[in-house]
Amino acid sequence: MRDRINTLVRRTPNWALYTLSVLPPAWLLWQGAVGALGVDPVKVIEHELGILALQALLLGLAITPLRRHARLNLLKWRRPIGVIAFFYVFLHLVTWVLLDMQLYWEQMLKDIAKRPYITIGMVSFVLLLPLAVTSNNLSVRRMGAAAWQKLHKLVYPAVLLGAVHNVMVQKVWEVEALIYLGLALSLLAFRVRLPRVRSTRQA
Amino acid sequence: MRRFVTDLTYDDVTQKEVFLNRRALLRSAAAMGAASILPFEAAARDFAGGETPNKFEDITAYNNFYEFGTGKDDPAKYAGQLTTSPWSIEVDGMVDRPGSYSIADLIDADDIEERIYRFRCVEAWSMVIPWNGVELNKVLSKLGPQPGAKYVAFETLVRPAEMPGLRNTSIDWPYREGLRIDEAMHPLTLLATGIYGEPMPNQNGAPIRLVVPWKYGFKSIKSIVRISFTAEEPPATWNMLQPREYGFYSNVNPEVDHPRWSQATERRIGDGLFARRRPTLMFNGYEDEVASLYDGMDLTQFY
Q: Is this complex's ipTM strictly greater than 0.85?
């Protein structure tokens, strides 16, 4: 079973992942357009895109632990998953700017500066920008693998801020948002433990 | 104190068929000649600047009524089981005629009018709603507030068997709200019993609720079972939960932001993906009518 999954991952071309990733947002937009998302479709689309982004980011962070502990090798998918996560974050932001705030720039800028949850969300987006820009082979070659990997550790604070942003948006404490935050923290905690594990093995 | 009694019952309220016929009559009368247009014109008074009201389906599918759950669709899903007849309202405190009243005791069916108001939620969305109701001052005057009564407090029904949201213990039930007596006596303040000429849908606060159009929606308490006249400012639920975020007054004010979001603009929902964002109006557009109630008050302090 595990080997079959690993083979499947190796054989799936990236374009197939990218094509699949377009389906959820397209479905949301379609449902919104035909009135299947209720009275306030904008809020639903905005929220669901944010959740999709968070899920993709968490999946990306889960790849190393899965490889180490479950011998599931999804490494080939890691970069496309990261790109897809950024694509969802970007759509989430575009929804906010165009459908929700409707280009009220002055209010948006004030909100980014004054509202902690919006500030945090924006910081998370800004942290992800250089990762998206350098998510091509040319960048890896130019920067060198070590520097590239170091830069891409920015995904750690970005995921954490994204999960905190999702908790703070809610009017009251929501269990679902707290679960996402818990997942993010566990996946990050796994990284903190890594060096110690490696050093005992080497000793 | 003497208990106010009446021999009227709910059956004395004009039957819906009868008053609908009455309207049809007015309408055909209006169609017949210009001279008879007046009564029909008076039937629905527009207080929303000529804006088209939201659809009945929107008004009844998107509600904050935490007694039925925190989701916007929870009230529409779960309020159907609410028993609204018989219904009684306890009146107490500094009032000449305290007691237990039915709706028919309190409201004269002839006083019920239709008014189209803007409705602005503290969450920065808004609707336009055609309410049916009476001016609260007519009801309060009937009850005889005593000179010492400076505030009017309201409470929502607590009935765990029919209200699944009451299991949420982060709120100290019953839901409570209050107004200063001059706000309560203001002619814009309604006790509403219906929407679009239909009896108040359960999810919108059946059978009787408050409507204060210049304040954020949570002040317009639903499914009222108690009205108390007090000398002191009464506790109000959201104010008790987050005093920094929800003030006792909670007048719609684009210049005083909720700490977590701006109140400068609002989305008029109900037009699907293209529901338009627009600037929020001072006192929700009722500034001319109500601003004088707050003369000399610092509205950033008394938010």
A: no
The secondary element (H helix, E strand) that includes residue B81 is: none
How many other CB atoms are there within 10 angstroms of residue A91's CB atom? 20
Q: Report pTM.
A: 0.82
Quick count: other Cβ atoms within 10 Å of Cβ B272? 16
Picking from A37, A39, A178 by the largest number of B CB atoms within 10 A of its own CB, the best residue to mutate is A39
Half-sphere exposure of A45 toward its Cβ, with a 13 Å CA cutoff?
30
User: What would the two tokens of residue A157 be?
Assistant: 């604070």
* Pairs across A and B, CB distance < 8 A: 56
* CB spacing of A101 vs B125 below 8 angstroms: no
**B125 vs A40, A41, A99: nearest CB:** A40
Question: What are B249-291's pLDDT values in tens digits?
Answer: 999 999 998 888 889 999 999 888 888 899 999 999 999 999 9
Q: Which residues of A touch B275 (CB under 8 A)?
A: 40, 42
Residues written for chain B? 303
* B118 DSSP β-pair partners: B128
Degrees, nearest 5: CA angle A103-A107-A112: 105
B13-59 pLDDT, tens digit each: 555 544 544 454 444 444 444 333 333 334 789 999 999 999 999 99
Place of tokens 């627009």: B278
